[in-house]
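Case study B.
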Amino acid sequence: MGNPVIKFDHVKKHFVKRQGLFGKSALKAVDNVSFEIQQGEILAVVGESGCGKSTMAKMLCKVYDPTEGSIYVNGTDISSYKKNKDVAKFRKEVQMIFQDPFGSLNPAHKASYIVGRAVELHYPELSKAEVKARVVELFETVGLTPAADFMEKHPNQLSGGQRQRIVIARALAVKPSILVADEPTSMLDVSIGIDIMNLMIDLQKKEGLTYMYITHNLASARYMADRMVVMYAGNCVEQGATDEIIAQPLHPYTILLLSSTPEPFREEKIEIYASENLPDLTGEMNQCPFAERCPKATDRCRREKPEDYRVGGRLVKCFLYEHAATAEEVGIDVSIYNKVK
Amino acid sequence: MAEKREVLLSVKDLNVRYTADRGQVQAVTDVNFEIHRGEFFGLAGESGCGKSTVAFSIMQLLKGAAHISGGSIEFAGKNVLAFTKEELRTFRWEKSSMVLQSAMNNLNPVVTIGSQLMDAILAHEALPKKEAVQRAKELLKLVNIDENRIKAYPHELSGGMRQRVVIAMALALKPDLVIFDEPTTALDVVVQYNIIRRIQELKAKMGFSVLFITHDLPLMLEMCDRIAIMYAGRMAEIAPVGDLLEGASHPYTSGLLQAFPSLVGPRKPLKGIMGSVPDLITPPPGCLFYDRCAYRQKDCLSAPPPLEAVGENHTCACYHRLKKEGE
Amino acid sequence: MDKKKQKKEKSDSYLVLEKYFLKNTRAKVGVGILVFFALVAIFAPVIAPYGPKDISFMPWEKPSLAHPLGVNSYGQDIFSQVVYGTQVTMVVGVLAGLLTSFIGVFVGLLAGYKGGRTGEILMRIVDVFLVVPTLAFMIVLAAFLPSMGIWNLVIIIGGLNWLWMARSIRSQTLSEARREYVDAAKVQGMGTLEIMFKEILPNIIPVVTANMVMVITSAMLTEATLSFLGLGDPTLISWGQMLSVAFDNNAILYNAWWWMLPPGLSIATLGFSFMLIGNSFLDIYANDRGGAVKL
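Model:
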């Protein structure tokens, strides 16, 4: 592997929750996650609500600091950026696209101010006219043409898709090399959302951007990403090339997630049932977090926490793959996931 | 599909208007469709297309600024719009019931789910308490919740379980029609999967018809018998799922189908539908999809295209519908 | 179609004006009353037939054409006093209100947005002051100060009235700070002050305005109270001062309603106008946010 642009190294994030009068407990939102993202790559982080994926996005953007472990961007631990000047330099590298285009734009400002302010903040040497020219350029980059039609509008005068384009323009204003996108299309209609995804892919190709793309939707992860990380209860349970994971899921949770995602063009309907009980994230976790729901769980899964096992190009956090190299070997038939109607 | 099935619900030329500051919003215009007994019927469309308004019209639950300005809704041959208060009361819940997206959050937090279920039963049937408890337990079992949870309060249950309690309540009086308005949108996929399978099993067992409303087309294609696609308050296409999977007739439906990334088959670039929905206060003449349509022609602007039959059980509102190979 | 376009082209400030004022009967009535009193204050020398302190008439004279509101026990024209009293009441009310708002907004925003230790300390200070009975404290302060000119009044009233406002602004800021655009501003690299004043403040302006209006009302009432208790500047003619003098001179015994009612009603009417404006703004704002806003 080449030089990773982003590296999560045994990252943990625990939120301290008060319980009762004196008690305290730590909610383990992210528990020991490691992965890397290469230059110019789109990495999808996939999981259901509460799996810790948004927390990871916010840590990468320095909204929170990790409780343990380090996040490296271009080889530097980002928690070492403490002074305002250093943080500002970091902000020029990493920007974020938010989930809710209705909440992430300040309703009090015009579109041109929102994007223009981002330019000013990081390029204070630019004159007013230069800032404006840059804003027009950014509007055009994200497909808001002619820019003049959108500049003077307030967010509430724009549609969801147009707002999300403004959010992207604002993120691009500082010329970042990394974009963190937290479910950027989940609040949009599909016919609009797919164009936002296309815009992001376009930008990756043209500007060489690197993405961490957070989603709950496996199909959109497949559409966007080269590689993906599947999260469950704060743990990264499987990571590898997107196509491989979707064609041949290995971890029982990935299999459950894939089976549950509606896909009308699959040849056979998949019948699977799993309990919906999520593990308690506050306690000490001395077992596989998925053990209670897993059809393949053994006693060992309830006693010990599995580590990552390498299977081909993938890492799978499951004892099944301690010695096995394919799903067939452990008695799971995954052929049904590829058959097209 | 050849045999004629009994029509349970028939919506004819339904028009719904909202009064807004700037004028009348034409939320639903000339909507026609029928649901057969025992059918799993889907109503799809993007936000603001009027799909929920149609459901609320059927249940006579439109509020405030909205009113039905024309058309008829017939349920088992009776005009719903002409119901008296008493008839309406039995119609809602006993004949038809509705599960909303946020319903799971609308359970009373200080009352056990058991008594909420019993309230639903006792409001319509005079039963001794013991029997009502028994019925409540049966209902819980029906939706796969342990009957011992009857004394549980809503906050003790997960979101998916609460939504299933709501479904149990909707089924309490064995209605003929159950309307689901985005029942799983707020839930995770695994939970959604379980709920959808449960609905399908119950439907097979109890024989009710389903009107399922969602914006999630893949989900709908997987579970429905027939799907209606709405756009800007009008019906664009009504087709059996099999026909849609082979290719849609209406350019909008086709655009929607092509906007969903898939988990199978080769990865191919997709594209969205450019533009936005026209202003429904002063809609332009002709086809409302004109601005965004890749197949538009001059005559599309003459008048809104009517729904016309293009196949068995398949209608489409387009002057230049997309033809399948060999047609 | 053209007409609709034009409608859309309306500037944003006009839209705000339309929403909060032109379509808002309560605010219009409130502002109307306010403008009326402001005009009275500005043109007092023109409107008042006599000087406020002229002692040149028959004491206890009942209202007549020459003295529309009669004469007090010293032989001063009450109508002229009410007119001039408007000046003092409004100046003290508005200045003290502005001072209060300034402190209240700053403390509220800082405590709400910064949170953590800073917020905690600020709010505990507020709590401590809230426990102290403000009026009693003011009375003590007023008694200790050598003179009680208009500026001292403004500072005492303004300096002690901001507590509730700070709390209200804080709770609104807390809910605003949870919105994603604040996270976005942080990721952009905006500083704390910019986020507080340029990002959050514009979104809570209606709450600030409503609070300010309440605070001005309460400042006017406090001024009246202090004057009534004899702690104001005895050389100033204000509505509270008039009531105080009337009370001291047993106006009730003489059944001199023309001396007590006009200043009292003026206070009530002016206060009412501010309430109309503030509450109607708040209702519109709360409606937009789909929930109640605490003041």
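The interface with chain A takes residues 46-47, 158, 160-161, 188-194, 197, 215-219, 221-223, 241, 245, 255-256, 259-265, 267, 269-274, 276 of chain B (CB under 8 Å). The remaining cases will be described in the next quarterly update.
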